[in-house]
């Protein structure tokens, strides 16, 4: 989650500079998060929470299959391709969580300090 938080923070910090680092990626990730959230809420209202979870899982598996299909001509074996495709979309979950935490913190007027990060705590322990 810290990676997603930092990703969003840097994307927003440099959004108005000549080189807007990661701004377009942050916007795309938030668009994906909104689409997943709307689909999940819509499915749960229409079909119930169990079918909504099944629909999200089916969508995830379709995305993995699509990514694996796109990579079918690479030199990797099938297991490596499926593992890569699975990881490509599974890594989005903590990224979205970090983005969401960053923007919720901004709405609440909160900021993270260096003391709150795991890396700072690890460095202090040395």
Topology summary:
Layout: H1 2-13, H2 23-47, H3 49-70, H4 78-90, H5 92-108, H6 118-125
Helix pairs in contact: 1-2, 1-5, 2-3, 2-5, 3-4
Can you give a write-up of this model?
With 126 residues, the chain is mostly helical. The protein has one domain (2-113). Helix content is 77%, strand content 0%. The protein has 6 helices and no strands. It has helices spanning 2-13, 23-47, 49-70, 78-90, 92-108, 118-125. The protein is flat, with a radius of gyration of 18 Å. The two termini are 23 Å apart.
Number of strands: 0
If you compute it from the alpha carbons, what radius of gyration comes out, rounded to the nearest whole angstrom?
18 Å
Number of helices: 6
Residue fraction in strands: under 5%
Q: Shape, please?
A: flat
Question: Residue share in helices?
Answer: over 70%
How many angstroms separate the termini? 23 Å
Quickly give the structural class: mainly alpha
Number of domains: 1
Overall pLDDT confidence: 80
What is the string of SSEs from the N terminus onward? HHHHHH
Instruction: Indicate the low-confidence ranges by residue numbers.
Output: 117-122
Largest beta sheet, briefly? none
Question: Which descriptors apply to this entry?
Answer:
single chain; 126 residues; 6 helices
């Amino acid at each position: 989650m810290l990676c997603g938080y930092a990703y969003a923070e840097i994307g927003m910090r440099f959004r108005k500079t000549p080189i807007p680092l990661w701004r377009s990626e942050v916007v795309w990730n938030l668009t994906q998060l909104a689409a997943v959230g709307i689909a999940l809420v819509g499915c749960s209202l229409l079909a119930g929470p169990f079918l909504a979870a099944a629909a999200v899982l089916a969508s995830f598996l379709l995305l993995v299959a699509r990514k694996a299909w796109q990579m079918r001509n690479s030199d990797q074996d099938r297991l490596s391709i499926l593992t890569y495709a699975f990881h490509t979309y599974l890594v989005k979950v903590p990224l979205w969580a970090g983005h969401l935490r960053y923007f919720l913190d901004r709405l609440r007027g909160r900021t993270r300090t260096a003391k709150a990060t795991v890396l700072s705590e690890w460095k202090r322990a040395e």
